Amino acid sequence: MLDNRSMGDCCSPAGYRRMFSTRHARREIRRYERRGLDTTSRRILELLKRQGVAGRTLLEVGGGIGALQIELLKMGMAAAVNVEITPTYEEAADSLLQRAGLAGHVERRVMDFADATDSVGAADIVIMNRVICCYPDMPKLAAAAAAHSRQMLVLSFPKERSWTRLGLAGGNLVLRATRRHFKVYVHPPDGILATVEQHGLTTTFNQAGRFWQVATLQRPG
User: Fold this and answer.
1) Which of 2, 12, 81, 221 is most buried, judging by how many CB atoms fall within 10 Å of its CB?
2) What is the pTM of this model?
């Protein structure tokens, strides 16, 4: 359910930096270098592989260390831009790009994408993987992503089930008790897709996994 409180009431900049810390970024790199992409990111990679990515441009919002971008660039993606709300990933992400031999192939920006969309160009493919659930104003963020997608938007978000809500509610209680200034949201999937479709895209794939639901929406033509 969408919580209409302001950003400052639940998710402060300090809250994002603490939740997605430099230490967290280093753990993500170790995991990726040992085991590759996580399950949800692999699902997205396979979807895009079937669509074809060679020569296309990518904008990923909240891509973290940029592992999915690296895999797509290896498949022929022409260029990538990553927009992150916290600077805590930047050092680790730059190091990972260097080791992958892809330094200079990804432009990384630090900003609140929903509030700074004029300074980011559109791309053929836009990805928001496990991002909407970390942002209170779903319509604003989803609309910004749709507006920047020339061809396709790929989303993943928690599927709406009672046990999902119960588990995340428990997690949010822990976050509140530890004063993390961060909250996870289960925005209604139908509402997410309807918001994007209002901006001229059509849902072409929508499938729930064990926890994460993955959807692709395409612009006609």
Assistant:
1) 81
2) 0.86
